[in-house]
Design brief:
Shape: globular
Helix content: 40-55%
Strand content: 5-15%
Structural class: alpha/beta
Distance between the termini: 52 Å
Order of helices and strands: EHHHEHHEHEEEHEHHEHEHEHEHHH
CATH class of the largest domain: Alpha Beta
Number of helices: 15
Low-confidence stretches: 150-155, 171-181, 356-374
Radius of gyration: 25 Å
CATH architecture of the largest domain: 3-Layer(aba) Sandwich
Mean pLDDT: 80
């Protein structure tokens, strides 16, 4: 099997950088390896990482956190590279010479960086987390991964593919094995409310109020995307019996799968407000439970808390399906296939260009041989 190399260009969020600073009390002159590991953990805790899925698919994966100034300075010291901003990251990519260079945020990588490393990589891939509301250098990429289908004008030249990790980085990429496999009845939290985002939590105030009236203080702090890191959210839900998922009105009749899948992957019994496509994600009644009103939600929570064996069975089935179809290994395999096709296209395009160069040289060689024979 051909071994492929991939390098990830990642950018730590402000939240992750703050956590990193607090973990590096006396780490300024630690080795690059030590500092990089701290950065990797902070990134994984905050967002989840794509790299483990690619490693599971057989790739040699390297992660470069280019806005982690302390670690980058350490690498420069150890390798003798000039310590000057992106010059360090450029040299790192050149030395790795990966088959695929994956830029985690197309809006964060400047054009000058992409141009500088273009000759040292096979396929240049970017991840687009929004709906292309801001411009970026399309022509610099061979492939752009997106969250949604049909929302991007790719006239700039890059091919577009749907990102297998668009639904989030689920359970097997995080340290949940112990808590999520424990007895359902042993979980210390009874109920948690998970919003698809902060707007959903605000919009679901009636659901929250109904739960608080019915279950007093057992509801706990609501969880929303962006308010807590991935690991923190999953750890809370992995210690919770019932997670109620609520959506913002902007989702219309369809579901925002991230909140739903995170909750199910943590092994909780998930109750989600009814959407037309829920059954496309998890089987209703077997892997997830739906509700249509705050009152019905309260009634269903009471029912399943009174029947923990049935609740545990649904929760287990939901988690198993999430990890089977959406877990890091499954997502990594899908992404690996996308990259392999992109590399094959890259090789074919290079081969297609060679005959033209050779053909152009033939008359010159013939003329030279004729002159020699004259």
């Amino acid at each position: 099997m051909l071994v492929r190399r991939i390098a990830f260009i990642e950018f730590l969020s402000d939240v992750a950088k703050d956590r990193l600073v607090s973990s590096r009390t006396s780490c300024e002159f630690a080795s690059y390896g030590e500092q990089h590991e701290l950065a990797r953990r902070a990134f994984e805790d905050d967002r989840g990482s794509t790299a483990p899925g690619l490693r599971a698919a057989g790739w040699i994966a390297s992660e470069l956190f280019v806005n982690d100034e302390s670690a980058q300075r350490a690498w420069a010291r150890e390798t003798g590279v000039v310590q000057h901003g992106l010059a360090v990251a450029i040299e790192q990519v050149r030395r790795l010479s990966p088959d695929v260079l994956f830029v985690g945020d197309v809006h964060a990588a400047p054009r000058v960086f992409l141009a500088a490393v273009r000759a040292d990589v096979g396929v240049l891939v970017g991840r687009l987390d929004d709906e292309a509301e801001r411009s970026f250098p399309w022509a610099s990429y061979d492939l752009v991964l997106t969250k949604r289908d049909g929302v991007i004008d790719a006239s700039g030249g890059a091919r577009v593919a749907r990102d297998p990790f668009a639904m989030g980085h689920l359970g097997d990429a995080t340290p949940l094995s112990a808590s999520s496999s424990s007895d359902f009845a042993e979980r210390s939290r009874t109920i948690a409310l998970r919003g698809s985002d902060t707007r959903a939590l605000a919009a679901s105030s009636d659901v929250r109020a109904a739960l608080e009236r019915a279950f007093a203080t057992v509801l706990g702090t609501p969880l929303a995307q962006g308010e807590a890191g991935l690991r923190s959210r999953l750890e809370v839900m992995a210690d919770t019996k019932v997670v109620v998922v609520a959506h913002d009105a902007s989702y219309g009749a369809r579901t925002g799968n991230l909140a739903l899948l995170e909750a199910a992957s943590a092994g909780a019994l998930v109750l989600v407000d009814e959407r037309v496509d829920i059954d496309d994600v998890l089987s209703i009644g077997e892997e997830v439970v739906t509700y249509r009103s705050p009152e019905e939600c309260v009634g269903l929570v009471r029912h399943y808390l009174a029947h923990p064996d049935r609740a545990a069975s649904i929760a287990k089935a939901g988690r198993q399906r999430c990890l089977r179809e959406r877990g890091s290994a499954a997502q990594g395999a899908m992404l690996s296939a996308i990259f392999e096709r992109a590399l094959e296209d890259h090789v074919r395009s290079r081969r297609a260009s060679r005959p033209r160069a050779i053909d152009a040289a033939i008359p010159v060689r013939r003329a030279a041989s004729g002159a020699e024979g004259a």
